[in-house]
């Protein structure tokens, strides 16, 4: 495959390159020959970039707020179980976190196999069209869902093989050490790990849903031990609050990882990811520096993932009754991902978390839209910031998942994936020898404009990373390049 007259990030945006791409490897980059006829305006050049990644996305609760009741001519539900459930009564009312938890657990009771498969496939196909080639899919296993979400995820992984590197996270959204269902939830999760071990690569839990600090600590301790025992990556939903009177649990996670000897006992390349962590926005610079120091000193492969579309919707609501605007004081809280990386050298990335449900009713799930939101959210307006935000939804996101740049085609061959956290460079630049898929951004020749103007208006060209971060290109201008 040869991509002619391409624009490459990090190089002079007026230069054009011919890029040879074989076996998902850039084998040659050469300056492109000047167009033969200079008088003729050459067709617009495409921009080549690394592909996008979802390091934290909930597969089974996507699109609960949209209708799947259309009558597809080729789809005849054969049984009651194949019919698509109605979730329309679960539209957010007060929009609170408690309501989202309640509505989503009600929705869970209605999942059917075909419904889980359809919504999951819609999410993955949409992600592919947006330029995503790898994702960590959170799949709930508990007393309500049993193994149904896991079954759907395994089916989807097979269906998208070679296109999407689907990394399945067996996930306890519900308590394991408290409430009347804790014991049963634990039993179901343990079964999942035992019976579907070959398909599960990550263990995820939610310590904050336990009803005491003691139970939350047991949750963390058990998850660390179990991830080590099954050689899994570990992923916590953690510190999802803005309550300065409560100590952040990130300190306990780091302490327990050290006490359990994660760095010595974990298989090379296994990472620990901490999601949400909105409580950390109340940290002083000193506390953040201490956090960075603890992670560095203990050589823990800890990555933070900011989930701003969910956090913005959930965090910092008025102090009065939910939905009632009794106060103008709405302290938004979402991890300061850019500062964490730039000022403190902490590994961090970004993801959309949820698409189309009570936790995050808005957004398209597009990682580039998320990077774009980051410009305003983190007040990050330099070229360097744009590059960093792009890395947060591409190379840094992959590294959090324990993946190098290598492609979806190599899924299931972890030995071919470079070890993460080993001087691996986060870069949007593309060099000869780079392995992995590419994302091609096409440029339009003219502005598409409804109605007849009598003149054609030349389109603005996207020639560098900041252009696509500041103004994400339409999905139909994006194309994933892979060989085979
Ligand atoms: Zn999540």
UniProtKB/TrEMBL annotation:
InterPro entries: Metal_Hydrolase (IPR032466), Metallo-hydrolase_Enzymes (IPR052349). GO terms for molecular function: hydrolase activity, acting on carbon-nitrogen (but not peptide) bonds, in cyclic amidines. It comes from the Eukaryota. Residues 408-434 are annotated as: Disordered. PANTHER family: CYTOSINE DEAMINASE. This is Uncharacterized protein.
């Amino acid at each position: 495959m040869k991509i002619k007259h391409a624009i490459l990030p990090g190089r002079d945006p007026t230069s054009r390159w011919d890029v040879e791409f074989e076996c998902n490897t850039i084998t040659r980059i050469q300056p492109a020959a000047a167009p033969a006829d200079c008088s003729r305006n050459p067709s617009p050049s495409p921009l080549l970039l690394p592909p996008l990644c979802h390091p934290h996305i909930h597969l089974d609760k996507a699109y609960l707020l949209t209708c799947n009741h259309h009558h597809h001519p080729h789809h005849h539900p054969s049984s009651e179980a194949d019919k698509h459930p109605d979730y329309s009564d679960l539209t957010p009312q007060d929009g609170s976190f408690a309501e989202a938890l309640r509505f989503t657990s009600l929705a869970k009771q209605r999942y059917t196999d075909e419904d889980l498969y359809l919504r999951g496939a819609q999410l993955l196909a949409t992600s592919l069209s947006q330029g995503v080639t790898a994702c960590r899919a959170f799949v709930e296993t508990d007393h309500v869902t049993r193994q149904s979400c896991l079954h759907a995820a395994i089916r989807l992984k097979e269906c998208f093989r070679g296109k999407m590197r689907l990394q399945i996270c067996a996930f306890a959204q519900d308590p394991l050490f408290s409430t009347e269902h804790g014991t049963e939830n634990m039993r179901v999760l343990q079964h999942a790990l035992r019976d579907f071990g070959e398909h599960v690569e990550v263990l995820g839990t939610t310590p904050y849903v336990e009803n005491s600090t003691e139970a939350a600590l047991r949750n963390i301790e058990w998850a660390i031990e179990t991830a080590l025992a099954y050689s899994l990556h570990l992923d916590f939903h953690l510190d999802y609050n803005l309550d300065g009177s409560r100590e952040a649990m990130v300190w306990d996670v780091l302490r327990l990882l050290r006490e359990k000897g994660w760095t010595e006992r974990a298989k090379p390349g296994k990472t620990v990811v901490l999601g949400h962590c909105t409580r950390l926005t109340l940290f002083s610079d000193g506390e953040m520096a201490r956090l960075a120091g603890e992670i560095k000193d203990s050589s823990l492969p800890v990555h933070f993932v900011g989930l701003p579309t969910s956090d913005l919707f959930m965090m910092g609501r008025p102090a009065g009754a939910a939905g009632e605007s009794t106060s103008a004081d709405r302290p938004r809280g979402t991890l300061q991902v850019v500062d964490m990386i730039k000022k403190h050298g902490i590994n961090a990335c970004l993801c959309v978390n949820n698409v189309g449900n009570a936790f995050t009713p808005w957004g398209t799930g597009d990682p580039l839209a998320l990077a774009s939101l980051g410009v305003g959210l983190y007040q990050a307006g330099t070229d360097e910031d744009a590059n960093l935000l792009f890395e947060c939804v591409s190379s840094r996101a992959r590294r959090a998942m324990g993946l190098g740049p290598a492609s979806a085609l190599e899924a299931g061959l972890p030995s071919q994936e470079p070890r993460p956290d080993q001087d691996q460079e986060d870069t949007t630049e593309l060099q000869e020898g780079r392995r992995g898929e590419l994302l091609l951004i096409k440029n339009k020749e003219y502005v598409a404009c409804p109605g007849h103007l009598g003149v054609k208006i030349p389109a603005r060209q996207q020639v560098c990373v900041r252009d696509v971060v500041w103004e994400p290109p339409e999905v139909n201008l994006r194309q994933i390049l892979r060989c085979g």
